[in-house]
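Reviewers asked in the last cycle whether our approach scales beyond single polypeptides. To address this, we selected a multi-component target totalling 862 residues and predicted its structure end to end. The input consisted of the following lines:
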Amino acid sequence: MKVPTLPFPTHERRLAVEVLVVASAALALIAQVRGLEGLTLGGLALLTGAGFLLTARTPIGTIPLGDALVIALACLMPAASFFPVVSLGLLATVPVLLSRYDAADTGKRILQWATPSFASAGAAVLTRLVVPGTSPLRTLVDVTVAGGVFFGIDLLLRNWRAPRRATIRLRLAAPVYLSLLCAAGLVAVAYLREGVGTALVAVLPLVLTRFAFDRYAAAQAAYQQTIKALSIVPEVAGVTPLGHGERSAVYAVAISRRLALGEESVERAATAARLHHIGYVTVDEPQEAAHAGDRRMLSGLGADILRQTRFLSDVGDLVEGIHSTHPRFHTREAGAVRVATTFDDLVLEDPSRVAGALALVGAAQQDAYGSAAVLALRLVLEEDPELVDRAIANAAPVIEAADASSVAHG
Amino acid sequence: MDATTRLRLPRPALLPGWWFELLASVVAASALVWLASSQRAPNVTTLVTFLVLLLAAENTTLMLLPSEVGVDTSFMIIMAGIAAYGGHGAILGAAILGVGAGMTMSLLRRGRYTVILYNCSNYLFASTAAAAVYGVTRQHVLQPLAFGAAVIAFAIVNVAFVIPATVLDFRCSARSVWSDIRPTFPNYLAFGLLGVLVGSLYRSLGPVTFPLLVIPAVIARTAFASFLKLREAHEATVRVFISTIEAKDRYTAGHTERVAKYALYIGEELKMSAVEQDHLRFSALLHDVGKLAVPRRILNKPGRLTEEEYAIVQRHNQVCVDILTRVDFMSSMVGTASDRHAHFDRGGQRDRDRLVLEAHIVAVADAFDAMTSTRSYRRALSQEVAFAELREKAGSQFNPLCVEALVSGISRRGERYGLGHEDATVEFEVPPPVAGVGSAGLGDLLDPERVT
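The resulting structure, written as structure tokens, was:
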């Protein structure tokens, strides 16, 4: 499978969107001049395709802005026109998708776009049958019903592997879904009252939505990169094994999710797992300090650094909680981080050590939160036997880079 | 200026252009009186509805558009109001809405009375012009064209008010204000037409239209606020680690911040976008992250490093960078810390392709600061010597574009760095020599025979 390095912004995708929009406008113009209805539908199909490719980066992944257009079309067009238009639109996205993903993944994406689209059209048809009428207010009701069905199915398809997390993801996705629903409503009533040209202006709020979410996603990625960069420093200094932070973060996320912690807690636990050795950077001779073994003192130093940032104070508490016996630091999150980091200390890059490591970590826990975290880890490993391999793979680039660097620089 | 459509952030209360603001306010008040006596009154319900929406948008942060958009939410609401009035009392209604758009509680609390009056006048004239143009053109052309003309009229009057006041208050050239405003013109048209659409729909559907616009605006605003908070967290985190680096290596205090500043000078000269400059700043701030892994005794050693110590410094830095360049898409961010990656002519074509402009910029900024700061192994060099050295190595060690951009950025600001112009000097246990052969990060940058 070709995996994109970035979830959204690639030049070829933007170029494809521009080409589709221009082609769509050209078709619409020819249709207007020559009075060809079929060309209008063709133009609309290309516009729908462009909409599928134009996405906003959200906490639950990329969501096509074209969803709004599809919902509006489902409520405005007869089913006989809607299905060919959306099918053609989906077809127009295939070359772009194939240039980035393999055939199976392309098919999966098409299915993920097509299913809610056609279901929303079905819902709109049913609503029209049950409550006939054509007023703009009536259209808004249609949009609400069709949109509800669309986003319900979209959420279902995104979470069918982890239904337990559907509620959390709905909370994360709700703002974007709501924005798309409002845009769909605005497009639909604008089209009914003012015509096609004005309806296009109605998608403008979506541009703002995309702008805001993209800026947030970019800032979050940059912040994560900085955290990763800092987490590698103690590893490079030789006080902790290479890749320890990254592997621990994978375990911390898995345990936190198994404990049904909220998304913010999961993120905090991952950050704490990555940065739990950061205290070493303040010590004069990091390697000697590591050997001296006063881990509690070093956790405290790391926690102090993180607290100075103001924004990572709670992560600092988790880091201090790894070795502290103070009840203040005994929480479910701290238990998850403690178990994750200790587990990786024992397993490192050798999956055959898992059983022994689990037994040792379990025996070492002195509070209920630690024991719960061990139980969660045990369950996760039963449900997902590839977790350890995934954690090792997650840290592999760091280790490979270090090896390459050792060869290059002696 | 933040929003180009109005005056903001003045300090102190009375700015040099207060007399102009007051004069404009007197003229605006007279115009309002005249409009009230000569124009038809608008529909009261519509007026009150839009006025409430306007005051809410103006005095809460919920519906504020991001500053990058360059237009205010008020502008959209005024255009919506004009469309909602149709031909009935649109001119007087728009004028009243314009006055309402200037009523900003934050300015009132800070006692910026003349600025408030000026903003009210600005919007009164701009709104009235838009309504008048719409009233005249709607009888001759299609509705969308009439609204387009109204939006353009609003923009012209608005800008005509903003430029002189900004020039008088902030002592800047009209050309620079205009170059700030110019990029926002497409946004005027787009958001103005969106306002018109909402106003038109209000006429047929009533207030049910508002949530369709307000909800996405609130959501976008909330997401943008989260972005700002995250950026602040990022900034705070990076700063704490910089202070940790500088606490460890006290001889290079302020180095990271200065490198970030010079990097931004270069970024500005090279016309990088705001987002690119933001990324560049973080790259520059993080360029010395490898030092965290270097033992303190080596970093703080007075005098020159032994070969073995120098190798430890280089190795830690190199390993750190090599690792980071392979982690996700960190390469462009911390590849800047690598001498190999930032070196302009090394590494062959494949490596050259991977080199990013950011790395070149930070390499130049880093070298300039290294030369113009006193280090344990060398006293600061003069700015002229530093510039000459950078130019000498331009095309081989440094990207010539970045070198010239730095020289131009510093010269344009009339700033001086280097010998005799250092912000802070560190007391060294062993006084550094007057000349040396470069720095740990630079290799043999300087030819000792050329340094005086």
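Confidence is low (pLDDT under 50) at residues 1-10 of chain A. We regard this as preliminary and will revisit it once experimental data from Aim 1 are available.
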